[in-house]
Amino acid sequence: MASSHADKLLGVRDGFLRFFEHRLGRPTSVVVVPQSPAVDPSGLPLTEEETLALAAGRARDLEERLRSHYHFFVATEGGLQSVEVDGQLRYFIRNWSYIIGPYGDACGGSGSVQLPTRLVEGLGDKEIPAAVPATRRGGGMLRTLTGGLESRRSTVAASTMNALSTLFYGILEMPHPLRRQF
After folding, report:
1. Which contacts qualify for 90-94: CB closer than 8 Å, 24 or more apart?
2. pLDDT tens digits for 1-52?
3. Would you give the DSSP letter of residue 129?
4. Torsion of CA 27, 143, 159, 52, to 10 degrees
5. How far apart are CA 133 and CA 129, in angstroms?
6. What is the rounded CA–CA span in Å between residue 77 and residue 95?
7. Which of 94, 116, 109 has the alpha carbon at shortest distance from 44?
8. Cα torsion through 142, 162, 47, 83, rounded to 10
9. Which secondary-structure segment (H or E) carries 163?
């Protein structure tokens, strides 16, 4: 299995474990079953809308094909976002997870990292994904940009946990109420 797929699978598992073990207050078993996407995307999505649409479409495809076998259907994708700040266009990379489960569907995003201006200055949207030196094997753009402090796995875990938080908001309560600390 390619490193990027393993990172995504482990990240999804980590996100589920973090959410459910924290919420339930006990160890939880989580099994993530990899599924091949119908079509691999070519390149990095260039907007958050494109990234979320790709993840949502993949999750719906999984649900359609496998609904009688599993409880949750998760698709996760990395993508770019551009934001104008003080008249300058800045580009960020982040991961999104889309989950369909027994209580509906939800999205969650990871933190984002800005692509250095010096790397993308003068490039068009189609050229930007190739501007950051990174490989799937080496952990991708986020690992490269953060010097290894963040990885595809950690951002997938964060986006998955955030989507689960939305999906289960008000349904699963914490086992012990938070006490006020004085």
Report:
1. 90/114, 90/115, 90/117, 91/115, 91/120, 91/128, 93/44, 93/132, 93/141, 93/142, 93/145, 94/48, 94/155, 94/159
2. 456 788 889 999 999 999 988 888 888 888 888 877 665 556 678 789 999 9
3. G
4. -150
5. 9
6. 6
7. 94
8. -80
9. helix 152-167
Phi and psi at residue 140, to the nearest 5°: 85, -175
Closest CA to 11 of 76, 62, 102, 100: 76
CA distance 44 to 10: 21
Distance, in Å, from the CA atom of 42 to the CA atom of 19, rounded to the nearest integer, reads 32
pTM, two decimals, is 0.84
Structural domains present in the chain:
3-167 (3.90.950.10)
Give the CA-trace dihedral at 156, 162, 164, 170, to 10 degrees. 170
**Residues counted in the chain:** 182
What would the pLDDT profile of 165-180 be if each residue is shown by its tens digit?
A: 999 887 766 555 444 4
